[in-house]
Amino acid sequence: MKDNTGIHSNAPEPEKQSEPSAVPGAEAGGARKRWQRIGEVAAVSTRLGLTSFGGPVAHLGYFHEEYVRRRKWLDSDTYTDLVALCQFLPGPASSQVGIGIGIYRAGLLGGLAAWLCFTLPSALALVLFAYFLEGSGLAGAGWVHGLKVTAVAIVAHAVLGMGQKLASDRILASAAAAAMAAALLWPAALTQVTIIAVSGGAGYFLYRKDQAEQRTTSPVLVGRRTAVGSLIVFGVLLAGLPLLRFATGADWIAAADTFFRTGALVFGGGHVVLPLLESEFVASGWISPENFLAGYGAAQAVPGPLFTFASYLGAMWNGAGGALLATIAIFLPAFLLVAGVLPFWSSLRTNPNMHGALKVVHAAVVGILLAALYDPLWTSAIVGTGEFIVAVCLFVMLAHWKLPPWLVVAAGILSGAAFF
């Protein structure tokens, strides 16, 4: 006979009575495994939150190196599909990718752990800037410039690895080049979404007659009811907070509405958020222009997502409580959208009819990352011969010596402090 695990057994039939007593142990073992995975997500995300300098594009490079190359929590196809999905969604793309990886690894609590642990170091650092380091000029220090050079090496390594796998023939390489050109020539907030959409349509027609290859996929540990619930909560908050703001006139509801709406409707990453937040906070008199710019400079000097600039603004506006409100409100849309869309996206990406579309979308993602490698990373970091030498050395350490990213980051900090 076969037991519940599908393993053949020669045990006599009466012994089946002992199976119920074994179930609690199995459930306990499963629970321990889930919590172990959540702990792993938290630990890795914390380390990345402490060392991932260079902005969202660099973060995607760090994630690829850590989660795909080293730990193999995701295969390259799943990771690239996740990146493509997050280019479609509004909000902080790198944080959304991190949330998605956490959900793949350990369910909703894994996604929460990934977001919290990746975000918290940056948020705390910017709250400390708000309290103690305002106007210190730290953002212009040599070690910060060294971190920008490190980001160039990290992203170059990620783009090279992804390009070799995902843009390996003439058509796909041409698609990557076209996506790169479009991203550089028309740097608008919706350009990336347009590139992904056009690439998907082109791939559907170019490869529709090809035999779809067997695609690997990682299970999404979120049910569709939970996903629909997340999307409903997102819609209710997006529509309800402005009404509540108008009805009450309370400052904390106004702030929550501002941050939530910013996180829910902004495409293009952290830099696009800045003018919107400036119009809300500076124009309303909640923060001075000088303090706003000081916080922006500090945000460039810390690891993690640039959206934690909201933590600084919240602290300047209303201390620790304001920082907590701002951080939760601006990132909550990202969590709700990823949790709501990912289960449906996971099913869609395995559909054979989507194979050709995703094939060109993958190449377009490589092109988008290549464009970002040039601008803003290369143009702002490689300004002389010394920076180029350090970037090449860091790349060799990462690509050929196979050193862990945190060690490469440390080398970049020391190089920046010594030479820049």
UniProtKB/TrEMBL annotation:
Membrane topology of the entry: Multi-pass membrane protein
Transmembrane segments annotated in the record for this chain: 112-133, 145-163, 175-207, 227-247, 259-277, 323-345, 357-374
Localization per Swiss-Prot or TrEMBL: Cell membrane
InterPro entries from the UniProt entry: Chr_Tranpt_l_chain, Chromate_transpt
A molecular function (GO) term: chromate transmembrane transporter activity
Protein family (similarity comment): Belongs to the chromate ion transporter (CHR) (TC 2.A.51) family.
Keyword set, alphabetical order: Cell membrane, Membrane, Transmembrane, Transmembrane helix
Pfam families noted in UniProt: Chromate_transp
Protein name per its UniProtKB record: Chromate efflux transporter
Region Disordered: start-end pairs: 1-31
A GO CC term assigned to this protein in UniProt: plasma membrane
Main localization of the protein described in the UniProt heading: membrane
Keyword Ligase part of the UniProt annotation: no
Protein encoded by which gene: chrA
Entry superkingdom: Bacteria
Organism whose genome encodes this protein: Paenibacillus lutrae
